[in-house]
Design a protein that fits this description.
By secondary structure, the chain is α+β, with helices and mostly antiparallel strands. It has one domain. 20% of the residues lie in helices and 34% in strands. A five-stranded antiparallel beta sheet has the order 3-2-1-4-5.
C-alpha cells in the first residue's frame, strides 16, 4: 500500500445534526459530534476523514465508550490517529477542541482506498 504525504489544512468538530438531518444508521447514542479532518496532498488532491465521538463539557472525550463493538472500534481508530501522528500521548486528558489549532500544517499519510484517498490510520 503506497503512502502519500499530505498536510492537514482544516480540523473542526461539528454536531451530528449540523451535518445530517437524521443521525446516520449505525452511530451509537454516545456519538454526538463529528471531527472532520481535511488535508491536501503535495499534488493538490483533497482528502477528508471523519471521526465520530462524544465530547465532554471540558473538551475531552472518553477513550473507552460504552456500546457496541462498532462504537468502540471508531473510538479506537480516533485514539490510534492521535497517537500515530503524535497529537498527544495522553488521550484521556487531551482537550480536543483546544488541540485542533495545533493540527493545522501537520503531516499525515494518505492511502488509496477503492480509487479514493483516505488518511492512513494504523
Amino acid at each position: 500500500m503506497e503512502r502519500i504525504d499530505a498536510v492537514i489544512r482544516d480540523a473542526e468538530v461539528h454536531k451530528i445534526y449540523d451535518l445530517f438531518s437524521h443521525k446516520p444508521a449505525g452511530l451509537g447514542f454516545n456519538e454526538t459530534e463529528a471531527l472532520v479532518v481535511t488535508g491536501r496532498t503535495e499534488d493538490g488532491r483533497a482528502v477528508q476523514d471523519t471521526f465520530y465521538l462524544c465530547l465532554k463539557a471540558d473538551g475531552t472525550f472518553d477513550p473507552h465508550p460504552m456500546g457496541r463493538d462498532a462504537v468502540k472500534y471508531r473510538r479506537h481508530r480516533l485514539i490510534s490517529f492521535l497517537k500515530y501522528y503524535k497529537m498527544t500521548d495522553d488521550v484521556r486528558n487531551y482537550t480536543l477542541r483546544e488541540g485542533l489549532k495545533d493540527w493545522i500544517g501537520k503531516r499525515v499519510e494518505v492511502v488509496h482506498v477503492d480509487e479514493n484517498l483516505a488518511i492512513y490510520v494504523p
